[in-house]
Amino acid sequence: MKYRRLGITNEKIPLIGQGTWTYGENKSEALEEIKALRFGIENGLTLIDTAEEYAKGGAERIVSEAIKDCRGDIFLTTKVSAKNCSYKSVIEAAERSLERLNTTYIDLYLQHWPSKEHPLEETMQAMEYLVDKGLVKYIGVSNFTQQLMDDAQAVLGSHVIMCNQVGYHLNDRRVENDIIPYCQKNEVTVMGYSPFGYAPQFFGGVGFPEQGTMERQILDKIGRKYGATAYQVALNWILRHEKLITIPKAKTITHIKSNLKALELTLSDEDLQLIDTYFPKTNEGMSLVKY
Ligand code: NAP
């Protein structure tokens, strides 16, 4: 496994973690989900990303089963929902997550989305309380614009924002214009989510290029040079930035193995240029969405 440092810390986190969105939604798939997480852990994917919102706590319960005999080896990330971002609710949400995860601490606790109703100051004060109590090791945010990251840091006092988790894939390169350079300058980890594109209900659902499209043919063609799949090319391309890791969700063992192998590629400059041509960067930066 390859590692990067979390924020300004000496904490080593793997370049690829494991996402858990939709885990816990369907009881009949629980064993498969636990098995997938455990296979990933055994192969170095020791960072797990979950959230109180996923399956209304069901994903955190699946994670707790998968890590029950190896908690110490895991870098556990979970998130407080925007609606629970008052001072009191953040603390209560964290306590509920700890209970579902069956652990005494969360490695990285993120505000899931900017909140419409709760001032950042309150949310961040609660985050500080959780760190001071030893219930959370590191504070982070998700879906935060550059301005909001500045605002959050300004109210945090001595604690530091270690991570911004944002959408990043071939068809959404907006964070390259603002969040990635900002985070590199300020030594904040970028945790890219949905590396294979957005689900239909999310940001218009720009998913992975389908078979038969020109974009897919290009990825397949690049992949053939390295004995790799289009998905491996897409995943490796994301990881070319310093200070950035990604968290694919893969329930299938073949997919997990494929994602691990993606770490071994080195895309040539010529191939990176080809990707720029077919998946161009736009001028927009990250948009502000509040819940
Ligand atoms: P994703 O990881 O981009 O894509 C997941 C899909 O890709 C699944 O259908 C999976 O199939 C498939 N897949 C995985 N590896 C593959 C491979 N090597 N070849 C072909 N298909 C492959 O999507 P995501 O779940 O939206 O994002 C990942 C994680 O990011 C989430 O699970 C969640 O933890 C986090 N996230 C955070 C936010 C936020 O607001 N902070 C938003 C969205 C997501 P199988 O499962 O069948 O293997």
Helix-strand layout with pairing:
Layout (H helix, E strand, L loop, with lengths): L2 E3 L6 E3 L3 E2 L10 H13 L4 E3 L8 H10 L7 E6 L6 H15 L4 E6 L8 H13 L3 E7 L3 H10 L5 E7 L11 H8 L2 E5 L20 H13 L3 H9 L5 E3 L6 H9 L7 H10 L13
Parallel strand pairs: 3-4, 4-5, 5-6, 6-7, 7-8, 8-9, 9-10
Antiparallel strand pairs: 1-2
CATH architecture: Alpha-Beta Barrel
Instruction: Note poorly predicted spans.
Output: none
Shape: globular
Order the strands across the largest sheet as they lie in space: 3-4-5-6-7-8-9-10
Report how far the terminal alpha carbons are from each other.
36 Å
List keywords for this structure.
alpha/beta; TIM Barrel; 8-stranded parallel sheet; 10 helices; binds NADP nicotinamide-adenine-dinucleotide phosphate
Please give a structural write-up.
With 291 residues, the protein is α/β, with parallel strands linked by helices. It is 38% helix and 15% strand. The protein has a single domain, classed as TIM Barrel (Alpha-Beta Barrel), CATH 3.20.20.100. α1 crosses α2, α7 crosses α8 and α7 runs antiparallel to α10. The longest helix has 15 residues. The radius of gyration is 18 Å and the shape is globular. The relative contact order is 0.15. NADP nicotinamide-adenine-dinucleotide phosphate binds next to α9.
